[in-house]
Design brief:
mainly alpha, 3 helices, 82% helix, flat
Length: 97
């Protein structure tokens, strides 16, 4: 990839990350009590994680084990957000002594 193309891809990715962050802030402010909001926020977290891994961490150029580990983390984080949002009290009871 040429330097100019690489810079363009990184810039567009950064702008997409900023836009997704602003959308997340707006959704949280406008739809604070919506039951579907945690699912949408988890999807945005997943997309942002995938963008960061691909363009800034260059996961496609790493050892396959590292790439799979990174993909696993990108999947686990949004799932944990959803589980915590819908079953937070249950997880809190399991975590107490």
């Amino acid at each position: 990839m040429k330097t100019h193309d690489s810079f363009r891809a990184l810039t567009l990715t950064w702008l997409a990350l900023v836009a997704l962050t602003l959308v997340s802030l707006g959704l949280g402010e406008w739809f604070r009590a919506a039951a579907w909001l945690p699912i949408l926020v988890a999807a945005i977290v997943w997309v942002k994680g995938a963008l960061v891994a691909r363009y800034f961490l260059e996961s496609r150029n790493t050892h396959p084990f590292i790439a799979r580990l990174l993909k696993g983390f990108i999947v686990i984080a949004p799932v944990a957000l959803i589980l915590t949002a819908f079953f937070g009290a249950t997880f809190a009871r399991w975590a107490t002594l």
